[in-house]
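Q: My labmate handed me this sequence with no annotations at all. I'd like to see what the chain might look like in three dimensions before we decide whether it's worth expressing. Could you predict it?
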Amino acid sequence: MFLSPNILGVLFALTSAFIWGSGDFTGGYAARSRSQFHVLVLSALSGLLVLIVAAILWREAFPSMPSIFWAVLGGAAGALGLAAFYRALSMGHNATIAPTTAVISAAMPVIFGAFTQGLPSPTQLLGFGLAFAGIWLVSRTSTAGGGVSRQGLLLACLAGVGFGGFFIFLGQVELGKILTPLIITRSVTLGIGLLLVKFNHLPLPSLASNRLALLAGVLDAGGNLFFILSKQFTRLDIAAVISSLYPVSTVLLAYLILKEKVTHGQWIGVLVCLAAIGLITN
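A: Here is what I predict for the chain of 282 residues:
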């Protein structure tokens, strides 16, 4: 039996969430020992190389000029989001920073979609609400070393705006184009990262200086790829909200690797997110 387009879009978005969560955890950990701008450059470079190879093998043509314009804007927004996000994660409190960013980045496409595509069904709206609540529970009940600093919270909000802009801008790219728009966004991200390195009077990072950053870039590119695939089959707000559940995997990785405590409230948040997915797929 064939899956409906909406279900297929949700599955792609779930894959994006898992990969993004893994990439964000890796990038944040990489930024603990290196400048976030170095991490941004290395991750943008590794992701770009992977996308170029995939596009050559797939033989995908470049998109139209309007799609290139949206891809450029998406790359700029993504660079802003990644730089702020990696810096925030490097300050600790992964289980607070990541969900805060996710709530903001998911809310922006929902508001945008309400104006451009109309409201989704009441059941899906309820699912959106549960998704936000689940992410909030995962965030609020974190007890990893006290409360997050004001600077960390501001960076998380800035990252959310950047990622929300990325969702919206990439959502405007023409259907059928997957890899080449991401090459454009990644090239812009790399260029902005290099400018930030120069502006902050930092040396260019060597490829061997931070292998975790390179891995983070590959994972982030993979998450982007599955988000674009999701957007091909479902509404922008649905793809964005489901993809924004990536803090679940970030928190679980922090629990398994860094031994950060996951409270009962956070587990409840995970269950609420699962319930949200069920409602959104209806």
